[in-house]
């Protein structure tokens, strides 16, 4: 395969967990071959990026360090990625399937003539082809897909592969952004952050998600307290977002965020397929629902049939005792 380029998403000099999963997976897959993994990263300051990316198995790093990346504008990132592709001439480019990657993948594929396999949960690559498995129809089914070409893009759902350290001593080259925000036709005016979005949901190791069974401020405080015990993120079903108890940014599912934590609590969530599409990749699912026939129990590793207003306080008490 020759060179494989891995895009490492980052913020504030810290690499995203989903990208380290992808980097580590690719690095382990090519072990013992002549193939080379080149990581490219786009941020304002290097922070700990060089060290972390080396720990997870990159042979080379292209560091695009520029104030232009503070804006999180897709056009600036897309131009940087195209520059990295030109500089590396890879046969395969692998991304974590983040929101910004979803936005630009099609555009850079058209500009570079690449074939694309988006949002896969597993893949294997050979000379001139990639075969992958990807969830389709709101994750109801899996499809086996194949791409052929001299340049292939694959984006991988977070939580699909493991981030295991595989330390190397990569060489690093630093670049400026090839285009600046002023060169673009759109401008970023303001980033409006939900006041309670303290943990990045798509990167969180623990997510406590509320459904319509969480009916009031008392229930909301239980969700917050349980999440706080783990330093976890707070998610929500669309039904409870529509009651205005939780912000739209917390919505998980087909039309919300896709999460893949180690531990997912579903509190008062029925398990509609549109919700499950956003959380089925969680490593362990704990469901609390008063309806024993709720579909969420089909996906749960542990299920508690009961009123969440009774069960969650007991759970919180028990977790506190073991802390
Ligand atoms: C095109 C489309 C896209 C959609 N996208 C999304 C999406 O991205 N995300 C999403 O979540 N939904 C989405 N939906 C909506 C989805 O179909 C469901 O309506 C929604 O997920 C239901 O949310 P819920 O489970 O919280 O509510 P409900 O289905 O009403 O379930 C509430 C559950 O809480 C339980 N319960 C009630 N009180 C208690 C209590 N005191 N203790 C314990 N359990 C209790 C009930 O038994 C029930 O199972 C979409 C729908 C469409 C058509």
**What's the architecture of the largest domain in CATH terms?**
3-Layer(aba) Sandwich
Which sheet architecture does the biggest sheet show?
A: 7 strands, parallel
Rg over CA atoms, rounded to whole Å, is 21 Å
Choose one word for the global shape: globular
What CATH calls the topology of the largest domain is Rossmann fold
What is the CATH superfamily classification of the largest domain?
HUPs
Question: Topology, pairings included?
Answer:
Blueprint: E1 3-8, E2 10-11, E3 14-15, H1 17-29, E4 36-43, H2 49-55, E5 60-65, H3 74-88, E6 92-96, H4 99-112, E7 115-120, E8 122-126, E9 129-136, E10 141-148, E11 152-156, E12 171-175, E13 206-210, H5 217-230, E14 233-236, H6 238-241, E15 263-267, H7 273-276, E16 284-289, H8 296-299, E17 302-305, H9 308-321
Parallel strand pairs: 1-4, 1-6, 4-5, 5-12, 6-11, 7-11, 13-14, 13-15, 15-16, 16-17
Antiparallel strand pairs: 2-3, 8-9, 9-10
Helix pairs in contact: 3-4, 5-9
The structure holds flavin-adenine dinucleotide (FAD).
Flavin-adenine dinucleotide (FAD) is lined by residues 211-213, 237-240, 251-256, 268-270, 272, 274-275, 278, 288-291, 294, 307-309.
């Amino acid at each position: 395969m020759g060179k494989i380029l891995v895009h490492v998403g980052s913020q504030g000099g810290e690499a995203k967990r989903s990208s380290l999963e992808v980097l580590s997976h690719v690095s382990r897959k090519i072990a013992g071959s002549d193939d080379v993994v080149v990581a490219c990263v786009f941020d304002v300051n290097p922070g700990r990026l060089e060290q972390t990316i080396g720990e997870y198995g990159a042979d080379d790093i292209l560091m695009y360090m520029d104030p232009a990346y503070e804006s999180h504008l897709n056009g600036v990132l897309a131009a940087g990625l195209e520059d990295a592709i030109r500089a590396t001439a890879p046969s395969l480019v692998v991304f974590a399937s983040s929101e910004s990657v979803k936005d630009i993948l099609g555009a850079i594929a058209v500009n570079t003539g690449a074939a694309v396999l988006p949002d896969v949960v597993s893949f294997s690559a050979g000379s001139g082809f990639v075969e992958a498995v990807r969830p389709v129809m709101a994750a109801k089914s899996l499809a086996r897909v194949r791409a052929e070409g001299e340049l292939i893009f694959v984006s991988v759902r977070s939580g699909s592969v493991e981030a295991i350290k595989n330390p190397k001593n990569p060489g690093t080259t630093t670049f400026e952004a090839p285009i600046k925000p002023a060169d673009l036709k759109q401008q970023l005016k303001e980033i409006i952050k939900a006041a309670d979005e303290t943990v990045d949901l798509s990167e969180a190791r623990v997510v406590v998600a509320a459904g319509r069974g969480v009916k009031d401020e008392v229930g909301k405080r239980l969700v917050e307290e349980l999440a706080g015990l783990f330093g976890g993120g707070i998610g929500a079903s669309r039904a409870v977002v529509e009651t205005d108890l939780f912000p739209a940014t917390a919505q998980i599912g087909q039309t919300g965020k896709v999460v893949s934590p180690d531990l997912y609590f579903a509190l008062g969530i029925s398990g509609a397929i549109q919700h499950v599409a956003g959380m089925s990749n969680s490593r362990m699912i704990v469901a609390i629902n008063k309806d024993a026939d709720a579909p969420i129990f089909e996906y749960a590793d542990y299920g508690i049939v009961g009123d969440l207003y009774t069960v969650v306080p007991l759970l919180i008490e028990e977790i506190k005792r073991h802390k």
